[in-house]
Automatic annotation (TrEMBL):
The keyword Isomerase applies. The keyword Isomerase applies. This is Aspartate racemase. GO terms for molecular function: aspartate racemase activity. Coiled coil: none annotated. It comes from Sporomusa sphaeroides DSM 2875. Gene3D superfamilies: 3.40.50.1860. It comes from the Bacteria. Keywords: Isomerase. Belongs to the aspartate/glutamate racemases family. Its EC number is 5.1.1.13. PANTHER family: ASPARTATE-GLUTAMATE RACEMASE FAMILY, GLUTAMATE RACEMASE. Pfam families: Asp_Glu_race.
């Protein structure tokens, strides 16, 4: 059994969400059947979105330091519950000797293994959308994604910011998110990717009936698979 390191803090609730989903996905009959997990919740990592959109301080150094911290602490498999931070995935992986599971590629692999469910819409941070992290990963699987229009992206970004401030069930943008989802459903789409780790936290409070693709849960399932090999 491998010891898993969670490079977290981006944001803290998303880190808790991944930890909980790993526990939920583990086939355990007792405490001793569960996976050893080291959580490094480092919310002081500079904003990934600000670095991408506005050229502010890069988080690369802090991400690498956090990954090395976990490796030195005894982790031999890493995960990072922040989609936007995967823009620096290659830098982090090159700086450590243990594997960092790529959350975005894992999602693309999981979706590609399923039957075609029609058009898929990406709900992610503006930084993730601009860097085309999901678009490239899905294109490699011959799957195209629908990207929200600028006004829709603004609502998604505001919802993410509110979620980071602790507003989940009372998120002031839930209604508008549902309206965006309904409009895409009317146009033929019925699958939505929570491509920011705060979005799956909000999915449970959505009133729309649709297929919600949760990269955090998919990552948890892959963590369990690899850790228990």
């Amino acid at each position: 059994m491998l010891t898993v390191g969670i490079l977290g803090g981006m944001g803290p609730m998303a880190t808790v969400d991944l930890f909980a989903k790993i526990v939920e996905c583990t086939p355990a009959a007792c405490d001793q059947d569960h996976i050893k997990i080291i959580v490094y919740n480092n919310p002081q990592i500079p904003s990934r979105i600000e670095a991408i959109l506005n050229g502010s301080r890069s988080p690369a150094g802090a991400l690498i330091d956090s990954a090395r911290f976990l490796e030195n602490a005894g982790a031999n498999l890493l995960v990072m519950p922040c989609n936007t931070a995967h823009y620096w995935y290659q830098d982090i992986q090159a700086a450590i000797t243990i594997k960092l599971i790529n959350m975005i590629e894992n999602t693309a692999n999981a979706v590609a293994s399923r039957e075609n469910s029609g058009d898929i819409v990406l709900f992610a941070s503006a930084g993730t959308v601009q860097t085309a992290l999901y678009q490239k990963a899905f294109l490699a699987k011959n799957i195209s994604l629908l990207i929200p229009k600028p006004d829709e992206q603004q609502i998604i970004s505001l919802a993410i910011t509110a979620a980071k401030a602790g507003q989940l069930e009372n998120n002031p943008y839930l209604g508008q998110l549902d309206e965006i989802m309904f409009a895409y459903q009317q146009a033929g789409a019925n699958s939505f990717i929570g491509g920011c780790t705060e979005i799956p936290l909000l999915f449970k409070y959505s009133s729309r009936e649709c297929c919600r693709i949760d990269p955090t849960r998919l990552l948890a399932q892959e963590v369990v698979r690899q850790a228990l090999l």
